[in-house]
Amino acid sequence: MISTNDFKNGMTIEYEGEIFTILEFQHVKPGKGAAFVRSKLKNIKTGTIKEKTFRAGEKVKKAHLERKQMQFLYNMGDDDYVFMDMEDFDQLTINKKQLGEGVKFLKENAMINVIFHEGENIGVELPTFVELTISETEPGVKGDTVSGSTKPAKLETGATVNVPLFINEGDTIKIDTRTGEYIERV
Fold first, then answer.
1. For the segment 8-17, what is each residue's pLDDT rounded down to a tens digit?
2. Which long-range contacts (CB under 8 A, 24 or more apart) does 74-78 make?
3. Pick among 2.60.40.10, 3.40.30.10, 3.30.410.40, 2.30.30.30: CATH of 2-62
4. Which of 24, 7, 8 lies closest to 58 in space, CA to CA?
5. 5 and 57 in contact (C-beta within 8 Å)?
6. Can you point out the beta strands (E) in the chain?
7. What distance in Å separates the CA atoms of residue 114 and residue 52, rounded to the nearest whole number?
8. Are the CB atoms for 13 and 62 separated by under 8 Å?
9. Which fold has domain 129-185?
10. pTM beyond 0.90
11. Homologous superfamily (CATH) for 66-125
């Protein structure tokens, strides 16, 4: 058990039978009345964000999470993705809904962290940045270096992102998986 006075951003807690990550918190001491802690919590399983106010000093259970690095092998059908534990070579099937939006940047043999709580798979952490090759885009023309201008490009995973005009088919680019935005040419 931890006190709400010990909250830190990124900490995981168990509250009302669910597991939450603390996104942000603020200790408030009004002129009248007791102090309290205003917090913003993200449900790890569903991804929903909840605002909750705790009394100062209130005790909550700390959630102990285990992260295992696993390798993406292949997808089965449209919704199931198969991963392999690199330590004991066990295979785990994870649903597309649990992978979230970042699934469109997942290529074979990519390494991700799978999060377990009490032996149960409750979520995944995709790498923040991935390097992918462009499979289709309009050809770049010499001199197309105007900042701010973009064109759509299809990646090797099938995802489409906007890239600067000078990027060509076959180029490898860096993508931020949180926002889906182009970062730089590699």
1. 988 899 998 8
2. 74/108
3. 2.30.30.30
4. 7
5. yes
6. 2-3, 12-15, 18-28, 36-43, 49-55, 59-62, 66-76, 80-85, 91-95, 111-117, 120-125, 129-137, 150-155, 160-164, 172-176, 181-185
7. 27
8. yes
9. OB fold (Dihydrolipoamide Acetyltransferase, E2P) (2.40.50)
10. no
11. Nucleic acid-binding proteins (2.40.50.140)
Both tokens of 89, joined, read 């070579």
Asked if 35 contacts 54 with a C-beta cutoff of 8 angstroms, the reply is no
Tens digits of per-residue pLDDT, 20-62? 989 999 999 988 888 999 999 988 877 788 999 999 889 999 9
Alpha helices in 27-183 (DSSP H): 96-99
Closest of 78, 130, 86, 136 to residue 107, by C-alpha: 130
Cβ–Cβ under 8 Å, residues 159 and 104: yes
Structure tokens at 68: 């295992």
H-type helices in 8-103, by residue range? 96-99
- Hey, what amino acid is at 147? S
Task: Identify the CA nearest to 140 among candidates 173, 164, 166, 169.
Answer: 166
Q: In this structure, what DSSP letter does residue 6 have?
A: G
